[in-house]
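Retry 2 of 3 after timeout on previous attempt. Resubmitting structure tokens to design endpoint.
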């Protein structure tokens, strides 16, 4: 599955993100991507972790779906999986 993330301000669409959380001295947590930087902001680190958990859940669902294609020819399976596109829109809060 190819996962894309839509930034919280809706101005960025990030392909295959490498996400991380940074919390500043005021307790504000930012979810960022190593190539584009800041993509979402939350009042607590707990909320930022919940968002990452949601994204992880999407990836886990994809693994279960792709596993159900075990008996399909490898070329066909590859075509199916490369055409699945998932866009996750960062929630406001």
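Retry 2 succeeded. Sequence:
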């Amino acid at each position: 599955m190819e996962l894309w993330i839509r930034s919280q301000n809706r101005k960025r669409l990030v392909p295959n993100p490498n996400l991380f959380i940074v919390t500043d001295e005021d307790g504000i947590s930012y979810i960022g991507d190593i190539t584009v930087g800041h993509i979402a902001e939350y009042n607590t680190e707990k909320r930022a972790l919940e968002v990452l958990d949601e994204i992880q859940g999407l990836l886990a669902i994809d693994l279960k779906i792709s596993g159900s294609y075990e008996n399909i020819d490898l070329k066909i399976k590859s075509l199916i999986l490369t055409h699945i596109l998932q866009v996750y829109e960062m929630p406001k809060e």
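Attempt log closed. DSSP finds two helices and six strands in the chain.
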